[in-house]
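User: Second chain of the day. Same drill as before.
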Amino acid sequence: MRAESSGSPTPRLDYWLSVLVARGGSDLLLVPGVPACIRLANDLRNLEDHPLTPAAIEDAVVPALTQYAAQLYRDTGIADSSYRVHGLGRFRINLHHQRGVAAATIRALPTRIPTLADLHLPPGVEQLARLTHGLVLIGGRAGSGKTTTLAALVNEINQREARHIVTIEDPLEYEHVHVRSVVEQVEIGIDAPDFPTALRAALRQAPDVLVVGEMRDPETMRIAVAAAETGHLVLSTLHTTDVASTISRISDSFPGERQNTIRQELAMALEAVLMQILLPCRLGGRVPAAELLMVSYGARNHVRRNALQHLHQEITMTKNKGSFTLEESLANLVRQELVEREEALIHARHPDDLESLLRT
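Assistant: Same format as last time:
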């Protein structure tokens, strides 16, 4: 087992979180000038009558941060941390500043790792858990469920394969138990100071699968690409909006004189790019739509030449390898009566393609 990562108990915060869990809420919002409130589906409910002050928020939240996160908050005014309440569950804290004073958003983390089927992801996503090497990127906007999809893929590997899996996360959100695989989970600020240091160390631990919670800097990207080139399966996420921008985000993070080299390396290492968005579900909550590019010879050439505008066509040309478009995913959600037709059309990048699919 990894070392405990929770901070010190704070009675007021723990009370708010107990109400959050009891009512089935997703987030606790602490903002100066309004009472503490929780998010229930698409609604906000106050927990108290009196408004919070910045000092009250810091008094309740700072003691719950890890030592690393507390120092980061003092230095930068923003920090993420995991927090455990015995008998209640685990939570992800984001303490930050708005209008120059403290505010916080605290999310209840699921106690059970969802399966890919639970997430209603297209069946083709499952093939990513069967890859043995290469780089798999999951792109999407903040809050699009990338971390949850990543955890579901790790769980799929863990249930089926005897592999050594090392995850590097900031903060750690889903806790994996050993099933068929051996899973080590490294939390930034607790087990390692930063992503590059953790990733370099992980490569010395004979991993089969490396999971990088998010690639935020060029050094992490460089090491991850090199690891994928040398036979490891590397899974990671990026804040992006489509398949092309997910790939360009990596090369564009490097100085101009390095970009051509990193594109050549990326073309060799890349195995798949999954892009996902979340839409309102007719049954309540939200459901993901996705686009998947399984990288083949043509896509590698487009990456090398930085001709990423051709990747959508490459997706349509490699359906036999498991690729599928966002419009195909949206059409399936409409046919399953999970998403309204109008909602799907709003999110389609090629509405005419979606209309054509829905007519067939």
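The longest helix spans residues 146-160.

User: Great, on to the next one.
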